[in-house]
Amino acid sequence: MGQDKSFLLTDLYQLAMMQAYFKAGETGTAVFEFFVRKLPDTWGFLVAAGLEQALDFLETLHVSEAELDWLERSGHVGPSLTSRLRDFRFTGDVHAMPEGTVFFPHEPILRVTAPLPQAQYVETRLINLLHFQTLIASKAARMVLAAKGRTLIDFGLRRAHGAEAGLLAARAAYLAGFDGSANVQAERAFGVPAFGTMAHSFVHCFADETLAFEQFARARPENLVLLIDTYDTEAGARKVVALAPRLREMGITIGAVRLDSGDLGALSVSVRQILDSGGLRAVRILASGGLDEAEISRLLRNGAPIDGFGVGTSLTTSSDAAALDCAYKLQEYAGLPRRKRSTGKATWPGRKQVWRSIGPDGRIAGDTISVDGEPREGTPLLQQVMRAGERVLPPPSLDEIRATTASGLERLPEPLRRLTPGAHFPVEIAPALVALAQEADRIVNPT
Amino acid sequence: MGQDKSFLLTDLYQLAMMQAYFKAGETGTAVFEFFVRKLPDTWGFLVAAGLEQALDFLETLHVSEAELDWLERSGHVGPSLTSRLRDFRFTGDVHAMPEGTVFFPHEPILRVTAPLPQAQYVETRLINLLHFQTLIASKAARMVLAAKGRTLIDFGLRRAHGAEAGLLAARAAYLAGFDGSANVQAERAFGVPAFGTMAHSFVHCFADETLAFEQFARARPENLVLLIDTYDTEAGARKVVALAPRLREMGITIGAVRLDSGDLGALSVSVRQILDSGGLRAVRILASGGLDEAEISRLLRNGAPIDGFGVGTSLTTSSDAAALDCAYKLQEYAGLPRRKRSTGKATWPGRKQVWRSIGPDGRIAGDTISVDGEPREGTPLLQQVMRAGERVLPPPSLDEIRATTASGLERLPEPLRRLTPGAHFPVEIAPALVALAQEADRIVNPT
Q1: Which domain holds residue A276?
Q2: Which of A147, A429, B327, B414 sits at a 20 to 30 Å CA gap from B302?
């Protein structure tokens, strides 16, 4: 379909509101911020991701002639809007936390400052891009902590929610610390290393399993991984031992075996034994099949000799929390602070900055959310990344982002690193922000 | 990114296996089937969806020169494969259940019959397309049953997993019985009617709420929906009553009000009362904000006078079950039945057909899964949709698919229509299929 850059990839109400803003002359400067309201149950932190795609969206935003024609014929908006859309571009400023930054609820990770119709219109796709990658990077980071240094590969393209989800999940998982993805496109688009093994169907197409292994090895001798659970996992391991000398004569080294079913803990122990006593100590064991961070943690706690994990559905769909409770909210308009006060959805108004303090142990000691411009102790996490519609910083490489995540995870207090966190992170609201919220409430008289 | 048609949108192992199949001369006819292994907890049925996109993928499958160049340089495959890929097309047959068909676990909804390298390669994207839309159509159908005829609109683009997820979720929800989507692109791409209201940020940008309502109404007088919960929902309703005569003088009719927070049940009652006593009996009440099928059902059971629901995150992410346990499995190769026997993942081999019997009450009485070609009682659900790589049937319109779903839901036995189903659907395995499974196990000697 190739419509991920379409101007029409939005909610109809954005166009309706744009039309009304222009008609009412409400085109002053608006400030919107994107933040997460609360963590999914059992999650202790989040990892910011998706900024690169968000900035790309803003930088290239425009309406094509074909879209404009369609919009005019659709009857959804009038000529007063379509005439203004022809030259519509994003000309605002953006401040954001760098991708890979560890963050917590109510902390804005992105702020848009732009004329109201622009700042409003970009809401739908900005949330769509920031939410998904932040969700997957955070989920992946939990797996990285659980895997304690073992190899982690994304196997989740097939059950990801469409093509873009598969591609961006591979990126988000890699920046969170995964080693690569089975998704070939993610290597071409982002340089995420592609990994590949073999499927059960391959084994089924040959008269016997050993023949299947040998044919696969001859065709793909590099990074050779053999899937050994199609019929009987231990028998499969013995066939690998028997085949290894013949492959060695051909100059082929078996890199790893993969287990994809059954009791992975018990099978990894017996397979390790079979491989070791067959002289294949260097052959690694990969496991896959319905894994998530809890199962990875359980397997390793019980001493399973597994060297790497292929994680699919639970990663790319964030199976225990398919969405984050997040929002992109108006914080200021025409110089005045604004905030939503709907029951249960109240937000902090104004332009904000997040300050992070590091304790003597090198771990994060606490964050303070304050009014932008008020100096606080610590390091400010939001930085300007776009001015008047153009990037002011060269985008970091994916490996640089990966290093940011790794250092953030290292600095995470121990109770928050656990799969079931032992503490809430101390995020403090600065007095200046509390005062601003009271001012915002005074400005608008609700009755 | 626009890479949803890329040949590289696949798992690396598909390319590795293709290379090995060609090298080993294993290019005989393979039969793969796509099916769901089990239902999510509390779901009673599934709705087949995604076939149109799957067939489009198969019909247009090819490798671009740029992709071929990249593949050659990537080192992942050798020239023995890339030389064959230049003319690679899908030339196989496809049998499938029509989109909108209600179905159950273990019933194949799509069968591919093609030379092995083709049938294998298409696995990743076929699953990616069929799984997601089937997931969302099934989730949406649960909401349609819960809403008992009230209007249902998809509001979920922003938290859908990327652009394609947002677009295809709008399609899947519509074919399952939703009335439309906020996603403008879904109207252009598929004719899904676009609906739009207004956001809280709009109200915040005006000095008072009434002014915001009036400005919005003047700019967008058709299908006017006013969001009344920004400050105080009941006060908002009274402002709507006060404003209505002035709008009427301008020829503007208020279509509906929307509630997006608070106790939607209690607020809908008081808002209905305020509107009715203000002479606005024709103004409808729409509700949104964290809704799912359970909450819709609860609200209506308690008599909430809500005329329509906007459903976002729970729909487009299928929040209680972000993925289905589904598979695309080799069933036959070179004329012999095959099946996977990995622990806990055994499948039924061979080419299959599903026969559906309708009882005297007009409801589905039972399904039988049998070997294709063996006549059974009832109606066969799989039909040929592609021959030698080309469609043999004109694709049904989305409204025709919607009618298929509606009739399927009507025929669903009452216990399976409930949100927590009262019975398991009787799917029978025909004796001929049991015999074929035994034959398949004899063919491959696992030890």
Answers
A1: 145-316
A2: B414
